[in-house]
Amino acid sequence: MTPFFLARPILLLSACAALLCGTAQAQQADAADPSTQILSVSLEYDDLNRSSIFTGDVIMTRGMMTLNADRLEMREDKDGFQYGTATANTGKQVRIRQERPENAEIFEARGQRADYDSKAETIVLNGNASIVRMICGKPYDRIHGDRIVYNQKNDTYSASSESGRVRSVAQPRNKTEAAAAECLGRPAAKQE
Fold first, then answer.
1. DSSP string of 163-190?
2. By 3-state DSSP, what share of the chain in percent is helix, strand and coil, each rounded to 5?
3. For FRET with 95, which of 2, 55, 69, 80 sits at 20 to 30 Å CA-CA?
4. Per-residue pLDDT tens for 87-99?
5. In percent, how much of the chain has pLDDT > 90?
6. What is the rounded CA–CA span in Å between residue 147 and residue 151?
């Protein structure tokens, strides 16, 4: 899953302006470091403290990832590590959608709050959190709990729940690989 708080605030504003103006440079973003676009009702930017606060129907797009929230706070430390917090108003959820077309996969994550830490390479979803992995638009794997932590370094998840039990449904790997191969029109991998 691609991190969703990667652009430096000043570069972020330049990328947003370029995208809104429709320049060829912004339209041909490098796949390894795609441009970030953030739409919101308001923006507070503090260059001295390296922070930005976006509020009101926030939609952030970076490559094949989209984040929807009511508020997005971003900051960068002196070493260049980025941190972000996305929150939703009462009764709503932060939504993150990451597409992986090479595998016919879509990941959808939800929670009342999402925190990103580029130094630890983690995304933490809190409050009625869930992650669904879909292949060709059909759900295959699901995780639901009060808190879900995704570690990008080793591609692992952990979930916990204070109000009950964690729920997860996972399909066998050969089943998900066969579904992706069928969707992409490729021959299924043979099991050894």
1. SS--EEE---HHHHHHHHHHHHT-PPPP
2. 15, 50, 35
3. 80
4. 999 999 999 999 9
5. 51
6. 13
